[in-house]
Predict the structure.
Amino acid sequence: MATRRMLIATVLAFLYSSISAQSCEDQSCEIADISGSTGIPYTGGLANFPTGGTASGDQCIASYASEGAYTGPFPPSLRFARRSQKAWQGIELMQRATAEARTTSDASELQKRQGGCLPYTLIYSRGTSESGTLGETVGPALQAGLDLAAPGKWSIQGVPYQATVDGDDCLGLPGGVIATDLIESVASECPNTKIVVSGYSEGAMVSHNGVGNSNASAKSKIAAVVVFGDPFNGAPIKGYSGPIKTYCAAGDDVCDGEFVITAAHLSYVGVDTTEAVAYIQSVVS
């Protein structure tokens, strides 16, 4: 029996290390480094700076220096303005929305947890422009699958961040702050729960940032990070050594660090979410 357990543990360790050691695609790791979520300083210089984004998005990124984000220099706005015609509301509005959402999160999520801690907790960040806290695509599919797989054992919590294009330009940093608060709160209030952090599209960046900026105690409670259509595809997360399971469809340019939406980016509900439910359940069990 002991030999069998050791063999299973060895196989799982190999699988988890393979999942965590994914290779970066195109500019996915560069933008992850710029966000600060990897803990690896961006050193590519202006000549090799990732494409896309906006000049005002650069300002937003630089305002998250305390989270380890890159603070400059950035390329001239004319080189780095794929969405230059889109009006941006400003850093102050983004930060105010973040503060309001954090207040809402503190109150509503605490009320949900006052009924008692459950064995497992999924902390999920939806994609850009999706409504609610779980969105309408990947989030509800994961919730339904996990509730069916282990009835009454899962607390499913959506990160109540502002899922906007402006947040994409800011590499998910505003939502990441909210995700960090929620991860640390769950880990503190329910120390025996096993946490899985998940997200889709912009929410995948939020997940990277949220985990990367969580304290060491909270990180130790995270059983896995599971992301879909991830702009930071293949990037490590600073201070986190657990498995990172990434679902990236062939032809999904978002997984190359390019914010270009194709049909492939909308294809994760079904086969991928079903597989993810099985994977998540196996990790926590």
About this structure: The longest strand covers residues 194-200. Residues 22 and 234 are 5 Å apart (CA to CA). The beta strands are 120-125, 154-158, 194-200, 222-228, 244-247. The first helix runs from residue 2 to 20.
